[in-house]
Amino acid sequence: MVYPEEVEGMSTILALIYLLIFPGFLFLFAFSLFSEYLDRKIYARMQRRVGPPFFQPFADMVKLAAKEDIVPEKAEGFMFTAAPIVGLAAVFAAFLYLPIVATTGLHSFNGDLIVVLYLLTIPTLALFLGGWYSGNVFGQKGGMRVASLLFSYEIPFFLALLTPSLVEGSWKLADIVSFEVSHPLALLVSLLGFVIGVISLQGKLERLPFDIPEAETEIVAGPLVEYSGRRLALLRLARDVEMVVGAGLIAVVFLGGPLPLLIKEPVYLSWMFGAVMCLLKTLFVIFLLILIKSAVARIRTDQMISFAYKWLIPLTLVQIFIAIMVRFLGGV
Amino acid sequence: MKAPGKMLPKIVGFIFKKPVTVLYPKERLVPPEHLRGKMKFYLDRCISCGLCARDCPSGACTMYELEGKKRPMFDLDYCTFCEQCASSCPKDAIEMTAEFELAHYKKGEAIVK
Amino acid sequence: MANVKLPIGPQHPALKEPENFTITLDGERVVDVDIRIGYTHRGIEKLMETRTYTQNLYLVERICGICSYAHVQNFAQNVEEILGVQITKRAEYIRTLFLELERLHSHFLWLGVAGHEIGFDTLFMYTWQDREVVQDLLEMISGNRVNYAMNTIGGVRRDVSKDHQKKVLDAMDYLEKRAAYYKEVGLGEKTILARTQGIGILKPKIALKYSAVGPTVRASGIAMDIRKDDPYASYAETPFEVITTDTCDVLGRIVVRVLEVFESIKIIRYLMKHLPPGELVVKVPRKVPEGESISHTEAPRGEDIHYLRSNGTEKPERYKVRTPTMANLPVIAEMLKDSYLADVPIVVAAIDPCMGCMDRVLLIKDNGKKPGELVDWDRLRAYSNRWYTQKRWKA
Predict the structure, then answer these.
(1) Which of A44, A49, A296 is closest, CB to CB, to B4?
(2) How many domains does chain B have?
(3) What is the CATH number of the domain that holds C150?
(4) CATH number of the domain residue B46 falls in
(5) Looking at the DSSP assignment, which residues form a beta bridge with residue C298?
(6) Which of A154, A211, C202, C235, CA to CA, is 20 to 30 A from C162?
(7) Which helix (H) or strand (E) element contains residue B70?
């Protein structure tokens, strides 16, 4: 389902709407706040509590934006301010390449999967720099933890997400999505990669059990400790948007994105149908993330690194081997 | 290898059940009968012995003059709701009710006479 | 990176109550721990000298919120020993009932706090929801959820009716099922095991050298329990066992506390089935003759010792309290040697710190470089005003 006028020669108005409103910034902003609401509500219901009302994340952003924004004396003003802005900009940019409505995103080229993966690394670096330059020993400890965790979950995340492109044979997101739909069994081949991708995404987002840089009881909010007001609002928004973009990436790459897997798409409103399908798949991945979050305790830095190297990376290598064998034997 | 997430079955079961939070003040729990709340003072049973003021641990119960006799006055700002005044009274003139919603705005507003 | 000094406390999300642990870190490894106490000193021992024995009952209760009944039990036992009265059997049974109910709610609370310290918020919510069952029982019998004000010198003030007994027994059945579930989770959940197994090792010799008490030392294989060694209230008659494990680590302390919940349930069931009839209070005089007395009980955290000296008037002359956390605190420095920063909260939480009860005055001796001095209140106030106005923020 590719609309030619959306890929080449798109009119400027349509491009601006796509960029800014749907599915661009405004929609992403609203959807990430909605997914934060779902995260907190389902987490609370699992613990037999009531949970916040649906406008709570928005109210949090508004409240934070209205509060006083203090830069501590010992902090470097420029880096301190630049870190949240750069992190947020990177995840917003990453979202534009994901195919939400049609088979291609706003812009599609060979290798855009790699670009999205790299853009998703930038918030982690931004957090590290923000923590390091905050002039507080807790912030520096948190920043160091963020940096040392980069070694553990980035490798399985990248490798797991590159598995479908190995099966399919190109680095283009649009091709991967079309391939997934025309060969539904491809999902079974990359099932192990899907599981590893979800677990590594939990580590990338620094949620339980990989909550280490922001461990409230040890490091008092880690690299976020000196942030307040607008900068903290931007950092939290970057965290939420990263969750949506990461989950969306997994949904696109493994589950087929906007194209329906097993049901026939209706003839009318097909672009809306695609968007709804993609969002539902993203929500399913977010639900898996919430399940992992609520069932386990936090593990230590060294335990996380040994878990990544003893279990995640070998399993990812097994998955890559399976993918290569399938492609070789299948002769696709 | 044992997989983590032993609590998962219970957790998933709770997603659609009603939460245990009591949405106060829309819903209220019924307090038990002998809850130590605000005290009630029966003026006709009092014999002005002053034992209640002597035994109060926080100084909430003080004696003052009323029509020539000494009567107790209970300041709820200082009261610890320990019921010692009711236990010390030889004539059962003080009784603790179950009224516990006693928030007020100014100091000295809540006095039981 | 050079050694970094990280202050854990006095305000820190890991500690429920303020104390200062200054940790010297080398990367993620702990090199040294320096403990400072005294942040919640309230002057209770001095206050007790200005109030009569009846008024002191309620002050002693408020030394701590979680182990409050153990303190009142000690106080009442002290005064009754000097007076030479013997309380009735029914009063003894009711006192024991409350001591065990308090142990139940304290251990459930601790399970939740330990879960929160390792990041397991779901366990925290579940255990505290079960703790509400115990709190409802306490409220039903005594009229208050914390600080029950049940004791008086010479007995107890409220009775346990037949209806109460039935409700207590029903609640015990429910709690037994939940405690069995937590035992299964605690020993089976891989992430809890990863965080608590082998952490905070306390060898028995060191535990005895620093005189640690309570579940901390019972997890190192030493069977030290005041309820068996020197029975008080009605512990001589109720059948129960002292739980020890010999793993010497935080997981052992979790196991000891969960198994103690089972023992408490056993004791409460026995008490409710064999409650003897009788009077509740024995009449005692207001003035206590001269004398001294020491009494100790097994609070949920360990051995709690009180000392009383009376001088023939209505008010005590000197009262001294030594709480179990005070004995367990120096052991933290031993347990934290060569461990990770991430282990600090769970190791501190594993001794079940109750800083509120523990705080007495701390005297810092400066190795003879500068003699310490005692300043009075006005000078201290002037000094602090000067310090804050001149903004001399020292690290």
Answers:
(1) A296
(2) 1
(3) 1.10.645.10
(4) 3.30.70.3270
(5) C303
(6) C235
(7) strand B69-75
Tally of structural domains, chain C? 1
The C-alpha torsion from A30 through A32 and A35 to A37, rounded to 10°, is: -70
Q: Which chain B residues are Cβ-neighbours of C59 within 8 angstroms?
A: 57
C-alpha B83/C-alpha C150 separation (Å) is 10
In a domain, B26, yes or no: no
CA C315/CA C320 separation, integer angstroms: 14
Closest Cα in chain B, distance from residue A195 (Å): 14
Classify residue C233: in a domain, yes or no.
Answer: yes
* Chain B contacts to C (CB-CB under 8 A): 2-7, 10-11, 20, 31-32, 34-36, 54-58, 80-84, 87-88, 96
For residue C317, is it within any domain? yes
Distances (CA, A) of A118 to A93, A114, A155, A239, C6: 11, 6, 12, 16, 34
Contacts of A51 in chain B (CB under 8 A): 19
3-state secondary structure of A296: coil
Q: Do A298 and C191 touch (CB under 8 A)?
A: yes
Domain housing C102: 44-357
- Domain presence at residue B10: no
> Is B48 part of a structural domain of the chain?
yes
Cβ within 8 Å, pair C6-A137: yes
C121 with A212: Cβ contact below 8 A: no
- A45, A209, A295 member nearest B15 (Cβ): A45
CA nearest B18 in A: which residue? A48
Contact C95, C77 (CB under 8 A): no
State the Cα–Cα distance between residues A172 and C40, nearest whole angstrom.
63
Q: Do C189 and B6 touch (CB under 8 A)?
A: yes
Q: Classify residue C270: in a domain, yes or no.
A: yes
The answer to whether residues A25 and A19 touch, using CB atoms and an 8 Å cutoff, is yes
C21, C341, C348, C391, best to mutate vs chain A, most A CBs in 10 Å = C341
* Whether the Cβ atoms of residue A205 and residue A154 lie closer than 8 Å to each other: no
Closest C-alpha among B80, B75, B85, B86 to residue B110: B75
Instruction: Tell me whether residue C248 is in a domain.
Output: yes
| Domain of residue B60, residue span | 31-112
Shortest alpha-carbon distance between residue C122 and chain A (Å): 6
Query: Touching check for C56 and chain B: CB below 8 Å?
Result: yes
In a domain, B103, yes or no: yes
Query: Angle C172-C175-C181 (CA atoms, 0-180°, nearest 5)?
Result: 145
pLDDT tens per residue across all 332 residues of chain A: 444 445 555 577 777 777 787 777 888 899 999 999 999 999 988 888 888 998 999 999 999 989 988 888 888 888 888 899 999 999 988 888 888 777 777 777 888 888 999 999 999 888 888 888 888 888 888 888 888 888 888 889 998 888 888 887 788 888 888 777 777 777 778 888 899 999 999 988 888 888 877 766 666 777 888 888 888 899 889 989 999 999 999 988 888 777 776 666 565 566 677 788 888 889 999 999 998 888 888 888 888 888 889 988 899 999 889 888 888 887 65
**B57 closest CB neighbour out of C51, C143, C152:** C51
